[in-house]
Design goal:
By secondary structure, this protein is an alpha+beta fold. The protein has 2 domains: 188 residues, no CATH class; 106 residues, Cytochrome c-like domain (Cytochrome Bc1 Complex, Chain D, domain 2, Orthogonal Bundle), CATH 1.10.760. The chain is 47% helix and 6% strand. The chain contains 14 helices and 4 strands. A 4-stranded antiparallel sheet has the order 2-3-1-4. The chain starts with 6 loop residues before the first strand and ends with a helix. The mean pLDDT is 90. Bound molecules: heme C (HEC). The site of heme C has 23 residues, from helix 10, helix 11, helix 12 and helix 13.
């Protein structure tokens, strides 16, 4: 050992591939475990001679690939079945076949990226890039036309004289000891060094800044706005498609749009009173909906309690109280007719309230009426 220097390994140089393979087999037989072989090009049969186990990198790919699969599946499931459920083409909300391509892609992507990242940073220990063999005569030779084996000093079976003897016995043409450099002895994993982290942050800022500047300022690439700028007709717009130039069309004659039942008793409120039956049973939900709609659409004129206390301060004829015997004895259908068609000065509320909402308003009105004309039995 040279003073002040620590031995890293003993290396042997060979002239032919056969010799190095033979030497490697012998090294394995002799029980050396901490050694490496360097050749200018990959040698067939070397992995067998070194009895190399398959790389652990495969497990990294497996774990991260499966994590990608799981994360993608969970994300898509949450987005399309929980957060924003939309039925597309009658398919179930979680439609697995549709997700196969994207799940596959993310699996491959995350496996590939994480394999490279862990290879560089965990297996190769980047950004640490020094090694005792770097820059040695040995390395110059084995990267040109020689073949070499390096048996490390920290091998449990290492013993200077016996390693030298071993290298001679397998006919190494040259036997060179390799020593650690100062820097390599004191090497630390540099990933978490502030300098390196600062470097990463600076690179991230510069990359995103340059990308932002060139896309948004220099080239001005418009963001995806296909949904906003799609060819469509807005209300009142002209259309060249139809001969009459109208963009807004009447429904096809004789058809009824879904949810738009026709009111059959136009101009016949009394007939409606006899024929129309309230299909919505009184329930908590119906009363709640009725209250909301009554307070919005009826209370400005009729008052919150339907007693005719208008909030319009004489700007509109005051309506009568809806607690009159007349209205209390009207059937639900008769009131429905008033809401639907209006009555004298009261306008129609058919465009503001759907059928079901009108019935809900009537249910609520009945509750108001009963509250003001409670029977003995109601309090018992
Ligand atoms: C713009 C004010 C106004 C609004 C809003 C209004 N009404 Fe009226 N309503 C009147 C007036 C005025 C009359 C009396 C009409 C008449 O002279 O026959 C009336 C009459 C009625 C009648 C018949 C009463 C009777 O004794 O003949 C009922 C029932 C009725 N309204 C229910 C409603 C309901 C339910 C709503 C909410 C959907 C509503 N109104 C919204 C002004 C209004």
């Amino acid at each position: 050992m040279i003073s002040g220097k620590i031995l890293y390994s003993y290396t042997g140089i060979f002239d032919t591939p056969d010799q190095i393979i033979h030497a490697t087999e012998k090294a394995v037989e002799s029980g050396y475990t901490k050694y490496d072989v360097n050749t200018p090009y990959p040698l067939h049969g070397m992995d067998k001679a070194m009895k190399l186990k398959p790389s652990k990198l495969g497990y990294v790919a497996l774990v991260f690939g499966l994590s990608g699969t799981l994360a993608t599946l969970l994300t898509i499931w949450w987005m399309s079945a929980i957060d924003y459920p939309i039925v597309i083409g009658g398919k179930p909300l979680f439609s697995f076949p549709a997700y196969v391509p994207i799940v596959f892609e993310v699996t491959v992507l995350s496996a590939a990226i994480m394999t490279v990242v862990s290879m560089l940073f965990f297996f190769f220990k980047l950004p640490n890039n020094s090694h005792p063999l770097h820059g040695t005569e040995y390395m110059k030779k084995v990267s040109a036309d020689k073949y070499g084996i390096s048996i490390q000093a920290d091998d449990p079976k290492f013993n200077e004289s016996s390693v030298k003897k071993f290298l001679e016995s397998v006919h190494a043409t040259e036997i060179i000891p390799i020593y650690w450099d100062e820097e390599e002895v004191n090497h630390k994993n540099k990933i978490l060094e502030p300098k390196f982290i600062m470097f990463l942050i600076v690179v991230a800022i510069i990359t995103s800044g340059v990308t932002y500047f060139s896309f948004n300022k220099l080239m001005y690439m418009v963001p995806f706005n296909w949904m906003m700028d799609q060819p469509k007709l807005s209300a009142q717009q002209q259309s060249p498609i139809f001969a009459d130039g109208f963009g807004m069309r009447q429904p096809v004659a004789g058809t009824i749009a879904r949810g738009s039942m026709v009111y059959q008793f136009k101009g016949q409120p009394d007939l409606a009173g006899v024929k129309l039956v309230n299909p919505i049973p009184i329930s908590k939900e119906s009363l709640a909906l009725g209250q909301v709609k009554f307070d919005i659409y009826c209370s400005p004129c009729h008052g919150y309690n339907a007693d005719g206390v208008s909030r319009l301060r004489g700007q509109f004829p005051n309506p009568p109280s809806l607690h009159s015997d007349k209205v209390r004895n009207w059937s639900d259908g008769r009131i429905f007719a008033v809401i639907t068609e209006g009555q004298n000065t009261m306008p129609s509320y058919s465009s503001q309230l759907s059928f079901d909402e009108r019935w809900a308003v009537i249910n609520y009105l009945r509750a108001l009426q009963r509250a003001l004309n409670a029977k003995e039995s109601d309090v018992q």
